[in-house]
Amino acid sequence: MNAMEPRPLVVEDGPRALFQVARRAFTDDEVMSAEYDAVFNRCWLYLGHESEVPKNGDFLRRMVAKRNLVFTRDQSGTLNAFFNTCPHRGAEVCREAKGNTKTFVCFYHGWAFGTDGKAKMIPGGDRYGADFKEQGRGNLVSVPRFDNYRGLCFVNFDPEAGSLVDYLGNAREYLDLVIDQSDAGMTIVKGMQEYAIRANWKLLVENSNDGYHAATTHATYLDYLGNTHAKGEEVALSGVGRDLGNGHAVVEYSSPWGRPVARWIPKWGEEGKKELDAIRARLEELHGREKAERIAFKNRNLLIFPNLVVNDIMAVTFRTFYPVAPDYMNVNGWALAPARESEWARQYRLDNFLEFLGPGGFATPDDVEALESCQAGYQNSHESGAEWNDISKGMGLDPSYDDEIQMRAFWKEWNRRVAPTLAAEETR
Question: Model-level pTM?
C-alpha cells in the first residue's frame, strides 16, 4: 500500500471467504468524527413512536445524534420535530422531559411558541423590523426532514436526503410484521430504559442480530427454558440471517419461548391458550394463514441502519444508541405492544421483556459484559497480528441463523459511507 493511501477499515475478499474489520474502527476519535459526518448527519434516525404523543399538545424531548429535539403533536394533530433551541439567543424552549401544553415559553426572554413551532408572543416585538414575524424568523426551527412510517417517526438532518420509504427499502417487510400484530395499532408501553455501555456503539449493532453468541453468552437462559419445558422438547434456535440492503439486516428464527402475539406455552395455562388461539385466528382473518403464522411463531432481530434495533422476540423492543466517545455509548430502549392488549397478555409480555431484555434480565447484563470485554481487548489492536476482527462466518455458504451475513451487511454500508469521509480528513 502506498504510504499516502488511507488504511482500510473493512477488507472483503470473496474468493478467500474473508471479511475483516479494523479494530481502530472501534477506538479512534477520527473514526467517530467521520461517523457523525457521514452516518448520523445523513441517515434517517428513529425519533419515536406516534403513540408517545397521543393527544394534541403532547410533547417529549429526545436527544438524537447529539441534537436536542422536541417531538410534538400540535393542536391540529400534526406531528412535528423541532430543534429545542430558541431562535433568539439559543436557550432551550422545552425543559421538561414530556407533557402536554399549548405553549412553550423560553424562560430567558419570554418568547412563546405554539406546539406547531410558530411564534405566539415576542415581548417587545414592536422593536423588531416590520416584517420580522412574516419572515418566520421568530419560529422554532424544524428538523430538515421528518417522516412517519406506520407510526414510526424518523428524522434526517440532511435536507437533500431521499425519502424514508426508499431508505427503509426491504426492511419494511419486517417492520410490517411487527406493526401488523394488531389491527388496533401498536403503542409504546409507558417507561423507557436508559443506560450506558463502556464500549463502541457498533459492538451493540453486531450483538443485536448475532445468533452465534446465544448458545454461549446466554447459555443460562437456554438452560432455564429447557427446565421449564417438557422433557425432550427442543429449545434450540434455528433460522436464517438476511442482508436487506442499505445496511439493514435481519435474523428471522424459531425459538422455544412464548410470544404474547399468539405463540402459547404450557406455562400460560388453558385460559392463556384460549386467548392466544383467538388472536391467531384474527391474524389469519386479516393476513392469511402463511403471514399469520410468521407473525405468531417467528422471531425477528431487525437492524435499521445505522442504530435502530427492533427485537420482535419474546416481547417487542425498540432500541437506539449513540456514541459519546469511541468507547462509550448511551442506550435507550422501549417496549412496544398492541394498543388494546388484554391485561393478561400485557402482563406476560412485560414479564418476558424484563426476564430477558430488562436491565436485570438474562440477556442485557451478559451482553454488556461481552461488549465491554471486547472493548478492553482492543487495547491490543496496535500490536502486529491483533488489528482485525473476523466477520466471515458463512461466507460463500447458504445463510444460517448463526452466521454473520447480517453483520457484513451493516459493515459494507458503514464502510461505503465512512471510508471516503475519513480518507478526506486523513489527507488534509
Answer: 0.94
